[in-house]
Design goal:
With 246 residues, the chain is mainly alpha-helical. 56% of the residues lie in helices and 3% in strands. Helix 7 (130-142) packs parallel to helix 9 and helix 9 (162-174) crosses helix 12. The two termini are 21 Å apart.
Length: 246
């Protein structure tokens, strides 16, 4: 099987199951749809009664505003005992993406509740810089929740830092979760205008061949060099019929 760069990323079409997505619209659509998912039902897991649920809704509503305190109240809410409030606060911080707020938001990506982590990951993704890419890469590689990892992969797909490219490539090749490998591959291929078919088995020679093909692209090589990460070529994996990537 051969993969060829057919178009620039902005005109690429990705096949994900039966759905085709125009990449010219994917970044904005991801942000809007994911933020909406994060805020939906923000009080649904609260055990604290109507008062706390109303508090979570009030905090979530701040996402459409630009808080006059620069987000100080939202940062404080990230430490609330109610996970619904923490989730809403992480979402609402999308309205004030400042360096002052970043540490607390990054810490929220380590919250014990997956819903809170997911909300924090989506907001962190909006920074779209090297620092955000590094943390999103850690989440994609190590979080225990598939939904959180899916949001991290999406965030890396929107991030143009070389660290994002490396994180997607490393996870597409090595992540223990086959679902995560597929997500990572979808977003890294979108950068090259390549079509992605979910039917390709991440444990197959075809998948290994695709990984090796991508490694030969100058853009991938430049990203690894910029991050000072060794780029390991394993062409034998694509040739060995008994190969199963570790």
């Amino acid at each position: 099987m051969t993969w060829i760069v057919t178009a620039p990323p902005e005109t690429a079409v990705i096949r994900d199951g039966e759905e085709k997505v125009n990449v010219t619209r994917i970044r904005f659509a991801q942000v809007v749809a994911i933020l909406a998912l994060c805020v939906a039902g923000c009080g649904s897991k609260s055990d604290s009664g109507p008062a706390k649920q109303d508090g979570a809704s009030r905090v979530a509503a701040m996402a459409g505003q630009r808080p006059s305190d620069g987000g100080a109240e939202l940062v404080k809410a990230l430490g609330d005992t109610d996970p619904a409030v923490r989730k809403a606060a992480a979402y609402a911080l999308s309205s004030c993406l400042t360096e002052q707020n970043r540490p607390a938001l990054t810490q929220a990506t380590r919250d014990s509740q997956s819903d809170v982590r997911a909300s924090a990951v989506v907001t962190l993704s909006l920074y779209k810089d090297k620092q955000a890419a590094q943390r999103l890469g850690e989440i994609l590689a190590g979080d225990a929740d598939e939904t959180v990892k899916a949001f991290a992969a999406s965030g890396l797909g929107m991030n143009q830092a070389p660290e994002a490219v490396v994180a997607l490539m490393e996870n597409a090749e090595k992540n223990p979760s086959l679902a995560t490998r597929r997500r990572a591959m979808k977003y890294v291929m979108a950068r090259f205008g390549l079509k992605f078919w979910r039917e390709v088995d991440p444990l197959s020679r075809d998948w290994a061949g695709l990984v090796e093909n991508l490694k030969s692209q100058k853009r991938i090589q430049d990203a690894y060099a910029a991050c000072n990460v060794p780029l390991e070529h394993r062409p034998q994996d694509a040739l060995d019929p008994g190969h199963r990537p570790k």
